[in-house]
Amino acid sequence: MKFRKFLWLGLAALLLAGGCRTLPPAPPPVTVISSAALLSRLESRQSQIKTFQGKGRLTFLSPKQNYSGRALLAGRLPADLKVDVLDFLGRTILSLATDGVEVKVLSPRENKLFHGPATPGNLAAFIPPTVGLSQALRLMVGALPLSPGPPDHFAYQAAGNRYLLEWGKGDRLQERLWVEAQGLYPVQEEWFGGAPEPRFTAELGNFGVLAPDLPEKITLKTANPKMELRLVYSDLKLAPPPAPADLTLTPPPGVAMVPLAQ
Known about the structure:
The chain is mainly beta. The protein has a single domain, classed as Lipoprotein localisation LolA/LolB/LppX (outer membrane lipoprotein receptor (LolB), chain A, Clam). It is built from three helices and 14 strands. It has a 14-stranded mixed sheet, with helices on one face. The longest helix is centred in the first third of the chain and has 18 residues, at 2-19. It is globular, with a radius of gyration of 24 Å.
C-alpha cells in the first residue's frame, strides 16, 4: 500500500510539474513603420546584390517537360545566368547559359546544344515565358520589389503580421508584394504587369537561414502556360564578380548545334 501511495504521489507531482510549464515568450510587438522606411530597407538590400552562387534542389514542371535534380547556379544581375541540373549520379540533365542577348541550352541525352536569341520562348526550358529574365534572377535572391519607386498603396495587415504594397500601371495593377513585419523580408509576390490576372506568382521563405538577407526556398508559378519552378537551396551566397567561364556554356566535343527560333 505504501508503494502504491508513493507511486500515485510521484505521478501527481509529475503531472503538476508538466501543467505548470511556462509557455515560450511571445515575440516582441511589431513597431509598424512607414512605407518610405520599408522601401528604403528593401532597396538597401537590393543594392548589395550584384552576383550570386547557389546550389540545391531544383524542380521544373511544364506542359512540355518536367525535370528535377541537384542544381548549380551562378548569376550576375540583371541578365547573366548559368544553371546546371544534375541527376542523382551527378550526370548533367540540362545546362543553360544566357547573357540576356543569347541563350545556350545543352541537352546531353539528345547530344544537342540549342542556341539562339534570349527570347522568352527560348528561355522556357528554365524560365516560364511570362517571367522576364531579370525578374527571374531577382526572385532567385529575393531582390524585391520589381517595380521602381514608391508603392501606390501601402498597408499593415495585423492578421498576418505583414505589409502589403501595390504598384499600379495606369489604372491597372502592376505588382502586389507582401513583406513580413518580423524581419522585413518579401515573402509573397504577384506580378500583373497591367494584365487582369497575375502573369506569375512567387513565394519565398526562410530568409537568413543560409546567408544574411537571402532566401532558402523559392516557388515560382505561372497559370498560362501552367508552369512551376521550385528552388530549395542548400547553399546560397553573394559572390565576387565571376570569371567569364563561370557564366558561359562551352559545347562538348561532338555535340550537334541546333539553332533556336529568332
